[in-house]
Amino acid sequence: MEKNSLQSFLKRKDIEISLKRYGIDALGAMAQGLFCSLLIGTIINTIGTQFHIPFLTSVVATVGGAEYTVGGIASAMSGPAMAVAIGYALKCPPLVLFSMISVGFAANALGGAGGPLAVLFVAILAAEFGKAISKETRIDILVTPLVTIGVGVFFSWLIAPPLGKAAMAIGNIIMWATELQPFLMGILVSVLVGMALTLPISSAAICAALGLTGLAGGAAVAGCSAQMIGFAVISFKENKWGGLLSQGIGTSMLQMGNIVKNPRVWIAPTLASAITGPIATCIFKLKMNGAPVSSGMGTCGFVGQIGVYTGWVNDIAEGSKSAITAFDWIGLVLISFVLPAILSLIIHAIVMQLGWVKQGELKLEA
Known about the structure:
The protein is mostly helical and about 375 residues long. It folds into 2 domains: about 1-165, no CATH class; about 180-355, no CATH class. The protein has 16 helices and 2 strands. α5 (about 80-90) packs across α6 (about 95-110). It is globular and about 65 Å long. The mean pLDDT is about 90.
């Protein structure tokens, strides 16, 4: 009876403890929150710096002694933006959703460099506790925000620092290993992050949570680009220009239905990523020194490429890079667009010749 009562309560509160709700819906929403704060802020700062726009490079606010530009303000709001996005994905009622702003700020601040991962866990806990208490008392306008923020800040204090440190430790190990073994890690990072981009999880959020930059970030860009451009070109006969654009600068996740029906359609883009990854790390030394979230974006809105460019600009400003060379641009274009297209077409032709994939199996649903 108690079990049935609990299940009934959870159903009434729309609290669904599942991998899909937390590992797909919440994680994907967190990435969107990052896009609308940290990523956009980074792009605004880059545009202001490169085009010498005074309004975008001037200090517009000073808070606690810290000076902020327009882009700096957007980036500073990444914690609240991620938490609110997660709350939205978890279908929080208004009072819970608005309270997530404070929760996100606390988790991101206490999580340090690994803040995004801390925000993910803390925001989920705070949101579900808030949903559970929502409209259960006559003073809901007081109780719901108190519980949501109280739970969020408590767990931020309790688990955000170790979660943040763990995320950064894992990210640092991956980046260290990529520097040490650029060929093998170039393959591994490129393939795994690229596959994560096509799967219904967020490769961008994973890269952000792990703080994946440097050579490892470059390999991630290569893998994601290979998946998006690869699927776009090998399915051109079925999906024409609309499919080319929706997958090439949108998302290769559109092919998940076809992958489930016949996993072999995934061979060409995945093998292409296994080739472009080590080329990026070993030959072109492609590095992502921009926002870590950009590492998991590939060619989606050209965010991955903008991130690499932003990293170049940052490196020049810091004095670690003298100038952006023609070799840099050639490497970025080859890794992001040319090689994924050529390799995927060649590999896909072989796969079709073997009879593993048939014409029409990459058709996107209208």
